[in-house]
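Field reference: sequence -> structure
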Amino acid sequence: MASIYKINDDFYDESFILIALHTTLEDYALVYGLNQGMKARFIRAKSNFTLAENKSFPIFEWDDVFHDRYWVLVANQSSEKELISNNDLFQNETTYITPRLVPEYKDVDYLLKIETEKDIEADMLIKNILMMPKIMAAYEISTDKLKSKNNLIF
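Structure field:
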């Protein structure tokens, strides 16, 4: 008789903090500002984070060995646009949509994910980020109720 095992879908239980950033800066300018302002060392990953076909997101990483933290800055919108075919009044017009990494927060430009086992003062970090020019808003996102939490597995 064969055994049947059921795998729990919510197996990803790593503690991390997720900060939403609203800015008009390009990704390289934002990373430069974070590296200067926070004394961080973000570097561009060799390849984009690919979630699915036509869903590729620019990603920057920093392994902070001194504080035992792993930082990831990722754009919330895909660098590739998805073509939609219309069967309505505007069927001759080409329409594109921009896929989002976290669709619940479609207005967020970038997501800063900090993986750590230790407690971190997110309020102080957010205050430091908000002192950067052209950062309009920064706030912590509660990951407990996030539907697309599995999209944040890098």
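Note: The beta strands are 16-23, 43-44, 49-52, 55-57, 59-64, 69-75, 82-84, 95-97, 110-116, 135-141.
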